[in-house]
Amino acid sequence: MRLSRETSNGRTVARREDRATSVAVRFPSIESLQAFLTFAESGHVTRAARQLGISQPALSRRLAQLEERVGAKLFVREGQALRMSEAGKSFVSGARRVVSAAEHAMNGLKQSALAPRGTVRMGGSATTCAYLIPAFLRWFRKSFPEIQVSLDENLSPQLERDVLRGHLDIAMMTTRPASPELTFKKIWSETYFVVASASTSFSGAIDGSVSVQDLIGRPIATFDAPNAIPALARAMARHDAQPNVVVTTENFGTIRNMVERGEAISLIPEVASNNLDWNAAVYALRDLDLERHACVIHLGRDTLSAAPATVLDELLAWIEDHSDRDRPPRF
Q: What are the boundaries of each domain within the chain?
């Protein structure tokens, strides 16, 4: 701060003037810090220069520039040899933190630039869309926020057609695909269970299981089950009966409402029974083995871009982590 005198309109006035002094801080370059740390670890200029892939004079210039920039004597010369000063030794840990932080920032930037992104078109059956895929996506989005997944619920034959036509990238089906053009991986095997309202009783119920005869005459609301219903029909035919299927749908809400109101019973796959939140009772079918096999299909890994390939790999790994011996996951 200083006082100055000025003449204004013939008058002399005193003016107080503040002078702000700022000093620009010039930080060392990352290259000079890396050179310093390499020398500190090797203890020899020639060896450090070789490790850095530069000439000895170039290394010496970097070390000299670093000393000038930090304003401290980091090295002591003894004849032709150079060694670390006490100030240099104390500077090592700080320099290492700066270089590490810079490398971490650069790696993060590279990973962000290389991270797969975009929209993946995924399909699934009613049960997988109701239970499995939402649980997977909640987990997946935490690690891959740049990938968006659009989900299409449909019957297995339509899912297969949509993958073949390129309308879907990957799909989860509950039957083995018919087309040889598709690549598929079986992810689990599962059986079917009988689900009924809490007020429904079965005369032949034993230890949480029912028989085929207990189902005769009962209205059945079911998902598309190309293997289960024909197998049930063959079993009932031995008793001169046929399944009384009143509704076939992929709509979970419709089946749930009918079951909870006691209007029908249903056959549900294991992945649904494992995670069922209905007001209903679940029974095993003790004298008929109804089984289906779930799989993931696509047109081949070489046809998948980075985002769909990432979803496929993470989905298979996630299912393996949550499944027990080839059985469907529990959440």
A: 30-113, 118-331
Q: What is the pTM of this model?
A: 0.60
Closest CA to 132 of 325, 320, 290: 320
How far CA 219 is from CA of 45, 194, 259, 288, in Å, comes to 88, 12, 10, 19
The rounded percent of the chain whose pLDDT value lies above 70 is 88
Whether pLDDT at 204 is above 70 = yes
| Beta-strand pair 209-210/170-173 | unpaired
Q: Give yes or no for residue 113 having a pLDDT over 60.
A: no
- Name the β-bridge partners of 55: none
Q: What is the DSSP string of 73-138?
A: --EEEETTEEEE-HHHHHHHHHHHHHHHHHHHHHHHHHHHHHS--EEEEEEE-HHIIIIIHHHHHH
pLDDT of residue 25: 55
CB contact at 8 A, 185 and 312: no
Q: Which candidate, 146, 148, 152, places its Cα nearest to that of 170? A: 152
Non-local CB neighbours of 315 within 8 Å, separated by 6+ positions: 136, 140, 170, 296
Q: What is the pLDDT of residues 41-51, one digit of tens each?
A: 888 888 988 88
Which residues partner with 148 through β-bridges? 119
For the chain, the straight-line distance linking the first and the last C-alpha, in angstroms and rounded, comes to 71
The CA distance from 306 to 327, in Å, is: 29
Q: Give me the mean pLDDT over the 139-153 stretch.
A: 92
Give me 291's structure tokens. 């089984």
118-331 sits in which CATH class?
alpha beta
30-113 carries CATH number 1.10.10.10? yes
Output the six-digit token pair for 24.
Answer: 């620009």
Q: Which two tokens stand for residue 233?
A: 């029909």
Give Cα separations from 155 to 69, 94, 126 (angstroms): 69, 61, 8
Q: What percent of the chain has pLDDT over 90?
A: 40
Report how far apart, in Å, the C-alpha atoms of 4 and of each of 1, 54, 76 are: 10, 56, 49
